[in-house]
Design brief:
This protein is α/β, with parallel strands linked by helices. It has helices at about 15-35, 85-100, 115-130; strands spanning about 50, 65-70, 75, 80-85, 105-110, 130-135, 140.
């Protein structure tokens, strides 16, 4: 007589669906808790130092940005950074000033950029009727 019925043991199994669910929850948790910040422009500029430098984003209305690279090449715009010529820059500035009379222009020039190019951009801004021109700098190292 056999009172004890022996059950067949099944080999251990890994439930893949449960593992995938746990990994998705962890991934969602990481995505939600990670802070994203806006990156600085992709152009590698060595900004000059200033003791009066302000943090980016201090003004309410974003200014129109003109980038002047080390070789003197001009780029216009914060996101798209389209290359422009000095004459094309003047027409772009006039069109932007016509849309917004309170337009502010910001220069982001490499510290090795030709000074003549910076003066050309400032002249084009004055001819376009832009009254406020500022420059991006970095904070001076404290002694």
């Amino acid at each position: 007589m056999r009172f004890f019925i022996r059950k067949r043991r099944q080999p251990p199994a890994i439930i893949i669906v449960a593992l995938i669910d746990v990994l998705i929850v962890v991934l969602i948790f990481l995505m939600v808790t990670t802070t994203f910040k806006k990156r600085l422009p992709a152009l590698k500029l060595a900004l000059p130092e200033s003791s009066q430098a302000t943090k980016p984003g201090a003004s309410e209305v974003p200014p129109l940005v003109v980038f002047i690279e080390e070789d003197g090449a001009l780029r216009l715009g914060e996101e798209e950074k389209t290359p422009v010529t000095p004459d094309g820059l003047k027409t772009e500035l006039m069109a932007a000033a016509a849309k917004n009379p309170q337009l502010k222009l910001t220069l982001s020039a490499d510290k090795k950029a030709p000074f003549g190019q910076i003066v050309r951009v400032m002249d084009a801004a004055k001819e376009a009727g832009i009254k406020t021109i500022s420059a991006f700098t970095k904070e001076a190292a404290k002694p």
